[in-house]
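Let's practice the habit of predicting before peeking. Look at the sequence and jot down your guess about where helices and strands might fall. Then scroll down.
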Amino acid sequence: MAQPLWYPPTLPDLTGRTVVVTGANSGLGAVTARELARAGAHTVLAVRDIAKGRAVADPLPGRTEVRALDLGDLDSVRAFAGGWSGPLDILVNNAGVMPVTRETTADGFESAVGVNHLGHFALTNLLLPYITDRIVTVSSGLARIGHIDLADLNWEHRAYRPMRAYGQSKLANLLFTQELDRRLTASGSPVRALAAHPGVAATPLDRHLTGFVGASTTFGYRFIAQKEVDYGALPTLFAATEDLPGNTYIGPGGRSSELPRTEKRRKADSDPGTARRLWDLSVALTGTDAPTEVAV
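Done guessing? Here is the structure:
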């Protein structure tokens, strides 16, 4: 396989910098944590399964930590943030779930939006006083099938459609990134919010998919997948380490995995009114908001 034009050894020296990667016990998160650690970062793997997290962290060079974080439980999110001290240079909001049936989090949220958006929303706001450089949130190309239903974000009144629910949560990631970056910029903060998506990457995210959806996904992996999971992590690594403006959305560089590139946002991905209303609803649901100096 030809080496891509931009790949992990291209990463800058991250010695002295601290990074948190959520969902780093497998898939894209494990690769992201591995490469950031190899580049010298103090890498914190924020995971639900400590044993799996340690299995990833133990072989890595440099300073790594494994800390418990269940994004489907706001008490766990608060405990993680409450235990943090010292500067945090980069937060990578990577963890995600792709449900098959409607399930709920510990706080009663529909699981896709609860973990993929609301959990990361709360985590980011609670850690924001410590963040010095950037927040990278991993979205998905399936954001294009999403629709933000502010009146029924948790799918309590609609017929549940798993892929649409996942798409809504990934669209929420993009709108969250936009509104967060707007608030940071307006406050004069040097911190940036960016988003990335992996293309089609074979990861454990879909391990519970069955039936037509599962078969379609397997077909996609065999015939149109964006190489292996290592390549799927390139856009996240690029967004986390390159000098990019806030609210940049990075995707894969094509079938040959060339330089990750800026994605064009659709109108639905960047509607400022929806982004602000989603923010307000997320504040109400999670009880968290950006610190006063950036809550504008």
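How did you do? The chain has one domain: 8-286.
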